[in-house]
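Duplicate of earlier report; Nazgul, isoform A input re-posted below.
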Amino acid sequence: MERLLTMFEEADPFATWWPTIAALTVGIVITVRTLMSGQRCPNDNQIKEQIVVVTGGNSGIGFEIAQALAGRGGRIILACRNLEAGKRAAAIIKRELGCRTPLNSLDEDDNPEDRYFVEARYLDLCSLRSVHHFAGQLMAEFERIDVLVNNAGVVFANTQMPTEDGFERHSQVNYLAPFLLTHLLLPHLQRSEQGRILFVSAHAHQGAKIDFDDPLNVGTWSVKFHAREAFAHSKLCVLLATRWMARELKGTSVTVNCCTPGLVRGTRHFRNSPLMSSLCVKAVTYPWMWLFMKNAYEGAQCAIRLATDPQLKEVTGEYFNDCEIAASSVTGQDKELAKKLYMQTIKTLESVTKLTVDREEYGLDLQLEMESELRLEEPAEAEPETETNQAADEKKWQGNGETKQP
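Output:
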């Protein structure tokens, strides 16, 4: 031991370059990691008693968004395909937030967890009928909705296996179903003092292929899409629809924006990725993923700001990255393409979901308080619903100015 201590005392750090090289390497790694982690939400604004819907809130980025907004006083509904996982996530959020709550801020008989309203509801974006049912439940239970975060999505899904509604999976889960959910909930969002709609896009939209005559990609070309191309296309659709929807909602109390979380590791999106194909590949790529990719908490920061910052009250139709307005691809700024996509989306959903579209009643360009009905074509053999269930499940929908009966 004495000999070892003597060696340390007599050691000269300047006699070799290795300590300097090690220090520079550590400094570079820390700097890169800090830069790649992105900007944090620059405020801690409260959203007390605001009703927030977060799709895909049981894990990853959605979980972090839900936890942050619950901690700021929001009433959170986790819309999840895996309901059991959603219930576990809700319990974890309430438990963790309750543990952070100072006991002296509560009444003696209060349980810290009881201060936070977080619950899970079933929503399968692969089924448009599930979207209708989910929206009907919310509208029957709540008088308004303040924030809708369309976060759930898929990547590296099987492009050859369509959904039950006949659409390519990336297209429906990432774009069509959130688009439909947004329009179904729009009347309740307009009842909010300042309703906010958030779509999660991605950097991948910059490499998307899109046909002006078939922007929704429902033609035969869709079968040629690789999973990466299908994902990029769906995220470009999200961006374009955001821009045109903002124009349609001009003059109302509702804003609509989209954001990219950046490259994020540690989410279920990578379960089908080639990077997760084997243990050896994981071992090689994980250090680089840790260095150059955000974690879920960092990826959630932009959406948290969009949901809470009063400075963004009048900001709509924008694309955000790292909590700031960012430039999208040139295609993502094409107004004519955005309009074409928006109108085709409405017509396609009309034909598939048998919805009634009435712009004037929904008042896309008018600031009105309204009621709406969801009209679905039920099978002939279906049992008649009760009057209560019909009131909860019926809804009209906004569109392109035409009225189409089911």
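Strands lie at 51-55, 75-80, 118-122, 147-150, 195-200, 254-260, 319-321, 324-325.

Merging into the original ticket.
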